[in-house]
Design goal:
498 residues, mainly alpha, Sodium/glucose cotransporter, 78% helix, 0% strand, globular, transmembrane helix, Na/Pro_symporter
Length: 498
């Protein structure tokens, strides 16, 4: 490890820990502050926090690496994500902010699901929490895999040590400062990612005489854009665009909407968030495309395509700038891990232990229990991440589909359909989660492959979960009048606020 890189990373780590200490002094007096920052988060912090926790290490590693494997099909994933994020701000953000406050001030997504039907500490809440913990442990391990690869390829350190170091720093500031620490560090990390994804592809492009040369070099590795359009199947296009469906069910993203200062701040957050996301997604795809051409032109050996951003950082920049770019990757990784750890901790504390324990905890006891749960989830995720053969994009795609199918239809229908019943909600969660697990893990095809090789598992999961909610809801008794009254009141409040 060079001295300059070590200095840059040390400054970054110190800044994250100082933010954690600041948040510890400001927002951990009760569970609402620890889990949601007291619902006082500004639109600027909300936007960058949602974006940074969304994109994670897969934006700087998985998405550029996908260009080597999928070629220009990666663009359709990017477009699907942009549309999904916009729809999330439009459809989910304002209603969820109002509804969670009206639903007995619900602090977690599972708690909201239970309160939506007037059922406190319910089976629905427990089922939701189990799904969150299951998929977030997998999702968190994806981030730790990215951290391990970073330290291994950049500094020559042991992969396992990189996983443990990444987990340790994130756990400390998340454990100390809770939601405020996570949001503020996300804001800083989002700014770093924004700058890095502009600088790296632009500098790398300077090594080509023209865009024509770049495309000619890339064509020796991946099909041209025109060939991609002619060869791409309808199912392949749908699978790529369907990534956008996942946004409606991602707890670590939509929890930001629950914490924003007011509904009136959401349009500003949306504009900032989508602007940030457009630049960073384009930068990530451009990094992958330039990387394909650069590796071809200079005949470089790249064993892991997901490390192309790291390669550029090392060979194109001086050590101080390289250290900053390494910090950008860590920023992307840590921003998502911290969000996922906090949401998992919230589900364990409020939705599992809170529903199963027969005595109420004091606010301080609940906060302390939340901290223990942060460390516990991080430990399990670290153990899963110790296999260096894991793919960042592969792990993320499975977890993304799991949340999108299990929670996406439920969130949308909970906010827009008053006839949805408690039994329908449970049926939707279970159907979505089980469909994704079966589709992506069981070798059901004749050649031993999974059904995911035909179409991305989020599509059947989302469709079947929606069908389960509708059918079971229509076959069961309509919600109580008080539940419907609260639903209509929320719709009126959102309409007036706009």
């Amino acid at each position: 490890m060079s001295f300059e890189k070590a200095i840059a990373l040390a400054i970054y780590f110190a800044a994250m820990l100082l933010i954690g200490l600041f948040a510890y002094r400001r927002s951990t007096s009760d569970l609402s502050e620890y889990m949601l920052g007291g619902r006082k988060v500004s639109p600027q912090v909300t936007a960058l926090s949602a974006g940074a926790s969304d994109m994670s290490g897969w934006m700087l590693m998985g998405l550029p690496g996908a260009m080597f494997v999928m070629g220009f099909e990666t663009i359709w994933i990017a477009l699907g994500l942009l549309f999904g994020a916009w729809a999330n701000y439009q459809l989910v953000a304002p209603r969820l902010r109002v509804y969670t406050k009206a639903a007995n001030d619900a602090l977690t997504l599972p708690q909201f699901f239970g309160e939506r039907f007037g059922k406190e500490r319910s089976l629905l809440q427990i089922t939701s929490a189990i799904v969150i913990i299951l998929f977030f442990t997998l999702y968190t391990s994806a981030g730790l895999v990215a951290g391990g690869k970073l330290f291994q390829s950049t500094f020559g350190l042991d992969y396992s040590f990189g996983v443990i170091l990444t987990a340790a720093v994130v756990v400390v500031y998340t454990l100390l400062g809770g939601f405020l620490a996570v949001s503020l560090t996300d804001f800083v990390q989002g700014c770093i990612m924004f700058a890095a994804l502009i600088v790296v592809p632009l500098v790398a492009y300077q090594y080509f005489n023209s865009g024509e040369e770049l495309l000619r070099q890339s064509a020796t590795v991946i099909p041209t854009f025109s060939h991609m359009l002619s060869d791409m199947t309808t199912l392949g296009l749908i699978s790529s665009l369907a990534w956008g469906l996942g946004y409606f069910g991602q707890p670590h993203i939509i929890v930001r909407f629950m914490a924003i200062r007011s509904v009136a701040d959401i349009p500003m957050a949306r504009n900032i968030g989508l602007g940030w996301m457009t630049v960073t997604v384009v930068g990530a795809v451009a990094t992958g495309l330039v990387g394909v051409a650069y590796v071809s032109k200079y005949q470089l050996a790249l064993n892991d395509p997901e490390t192309i951003f790291i390669l550029f950082s090392e060979i194109l920049f001086n050590p101080y700038i390289s250290g900053f770019l390494m910090a950008a990757i860590l920023a992307a990784i840590m921003s998502t891990i911290s969000s996922q750890l906090l949401v998992s901790s919230s589900s364990l504390t409020e939705d599992l232990f809170g529903a199963l324990m027969h005595r109420a905890l004091t606010q301080q006891q609940a906060v302390n229990l939340g901290r223990v749960c942060v460390a516990a989830v991080a430990l399990v995720a670290s153990m899963l991440a110790l296999d260096s053969n894991n793919s960042v994009l592969g792990l993320v795609s499975n977890a993304w589909a799991g949340f999108g199918a299990a929670f996406g239809p439920l969130v949308l229908l909970a906010l827009f359909w008053h006839r949805m019943t408690y039994a329908g909600a449970i049926a939707g969660i279970i159907t979505g989660a089980v469909t994704v697990l079966v589709w992506s893990h069981l070798p059901l095809l004749a050649d031993g492959q999974t059904l995911s090789s035909l179409i991305y598992e989020i599509i059947p999961g989302f469709v079947l979960a929606t069908a389960a909610i509708f059918s079971v809801s229509l076959l069961t008794r309509s919600p109580e009048s008080q539940v419907i009254h609260t639903f209509k009141l929320v719709q009126q409040t959102v309409a007036v606020s706009r």
